What we know:
The chain has 5 helices and 2 strands, in the order αβααβαα. By secondary structure, the chain is mainly α. The protein has a single domain, classed as Multidrug-efflux Transporter Regulator, Chain: A, Domain 2 (Orthogonal Bundle), CATH 1.10.1660. It has a two-stranded antiparallel sheet.
Amino acid sequence: MNTDNNLTQFSICILEEQTQLTLADLCRACAVHDEQIIALVDAGVLEPQGREPARWIFAGASLHRARKALRLQHDLDIDLAGAALVLELLDEIASLRTRLRAMGGDY
């Protein structure tokens, strides 16, 4: 495996966490219209800072979350509520795994 690729991917992950995105930035990055991102916010999938869409700021991690939700909808033909539920369950699994590791578990 090329170590340059691994280093580049690692750098992108760090940048993503530190980046702040506007609604327009997130739409461009996900290649969707703003209505789709607004729907993700309305469903609780994304939590922007700001009171109105024109002033929303999203954390960099929102990009990964939005893409995952959109991929679930597209690839598995899951509606928005189903995608939100899947993401919530995945978050819960990650949280439980973290707790298990903290208690000395192998998972």
